[in-house]
Amino acid sequence: MKAIEHGYEEQPVLAGSDELEQIEIELLLDGVHRLYGYDFRNYALPSLKRRIWHHVHAENVLTISALQEKVLHDRACFERFVYSLSIPVTEMFRDPGLFLTFRQKVVPLLRTYPYIRIWHAGCSTGEEVYSMAILLHEEGLYDKARIYATDMNERSLQQAKEGVYDISTMKQYTKNYLEAGGTRAFSEYYTAKYNSVILQPYLRKNIIFAEHNLATDTSFNEFNVIFCRNVMIYFNDELRDHVHGLFHESLSRFGILVLGSKESIHFTKYSDCYESLDRVEKIYRNIK
Fold first, then answer.
1. pTM (predicted TM-score)
2. Is the pLDDT of residue 112 over 90?
């Protein structure tokens, strides 16, 4: 009952700023999930919070609640929001030591397979996918391989399909390629045009690009290799376990799982299902 003694009415206790922020974030993410089917609710909160506030300022609003209104009523705003939560950070042959180790330790195993299926989960704008296509081409395996490149971000996928990148990145990409064990002139794999480069069309011939959300979508094939690097660092423990379950379900017996430098199979409930092929480069083999 409201107090009215002494001539005033008792006022409700307002939530603190941190609590209010948490409520706003939960309402925003729940609304996005219910209306659009994109589930960010189990993303790691510190990184998610930074990206949400960055987008609040980018949309010229003052609060997360105001951002929610725009996102739910404006499809274009929603698409910008999704892109802001999955800002791609990638480059060709990123972490060259990983690709060199892959050549040395995984390629000999792949040679024994009649057909190779590789899934790049969270492929972003495609640089890692084309790096794999080049590596397999040089190892004589590309013709019997099919690469599935998936991401939840439609804009990133479209750029990946086009295979067009800024010419200013080629110096770094060439350096990465050589350190990754590249055997040719890297310039053979692209054509320069104005301020961009276009990757050779034959690199795309065995790549299938498709939308896939690791948080909500299911397994869609059996794979000999799954790459998912520096994606799960943005997930909380619950979502991370869910994705590891999805990968284990999708890997063939003795299939290879490749994680990012800050990620590990250890301390998950699937750790006993793998053996380590290379602890430094986070390459694991499914044994169960």
1. 0.85
2. yes
* Listed residue (86, 247, 89) closest to 239, CA to CA: 247
**For the residues of 85-109, what is the DSSP string, one character each?**
HT-----TT-SHHHHHHIIIIIHHH
pLDDT, one tens digit per residue, over 21-30 is 999 999 999 9
DSSP 62: S
Distance of alpha carbon 40 from alpha carbon 83, whole angstroms:
12
Assess whether pLDDT exceeds 80 at residue 87: no
Beta strands 223-228 and 145-151: pairing type?
unpaired
pLDDT at 88 (0 to 100): 66
pLDDT, tens digit (0-9, with 9 covering 90-100), for 127-157: 999 999 999 999 999 999 999 999 998 889 9
Using CA atoms, how far apart are residues 66 and 81, in angstroms rounded to an integer? 13
Beta strands in 138-259 (DSSP E): 145-151, 164-166, 190-193, 196-199, 207-211, 223-228, 251-259
3-state secondary structure of 26: helix
Q: How far apart are CA 120 and CA 114, in angstroms?
A: 20
Q: Are the C-beta atoms of 124 and 90 separated by less than 8 Å?
A: yes
- What is the amino acid identity at position 56? V
- Does the domain formed by 96-286 have CATH 3.40.50.300? no
Count the alpha carbons within 13 Å of 142 in the hemisphere toward its beta carbon: 17
